[in-house]
Amino acid sequence: MKLVFITIGLLGLGFAGIALKIWAKKDGAFSGTCASQSPFLNKEGEACGMCGKLPTEQECRNEITP
Question: Are 38 and 62 part of one and the same domain?
Fold first, then answer.
């Protein structure tokens, strides 16, 4: 039973941390979330599926392109 309370407490702490990060950031956006930044997720060098950013670009595009 003690382990269940510890697990719930740690999960709650994690959710609270994520909520604080979203609340503190401008427009609730996470920084560096483009998959094109990760060489493990983007081995072919494709553009980001959300914003269209290429791996050679430094900043994530804020506007989402259709």
Answer: yes
DSSP annotation string for 7-59: HHHHHHHHHHHHHHHHHHSGGGPPSS--GGG-TTT-SS-PPPTTT---TT-SS
39 and 13 housed in the same domain: no
Predicted confidence pLDDT, tens digits, the chain (66 residues): 999 999 999 999 999 998 888 788 766 566 656 656 666 777 777 777 667 777 677 666 655 444
pTM above the 0.70 mark? no
> Residues 37, 57: one domain?
yes
Containing structural domain, residue 53: 31-66
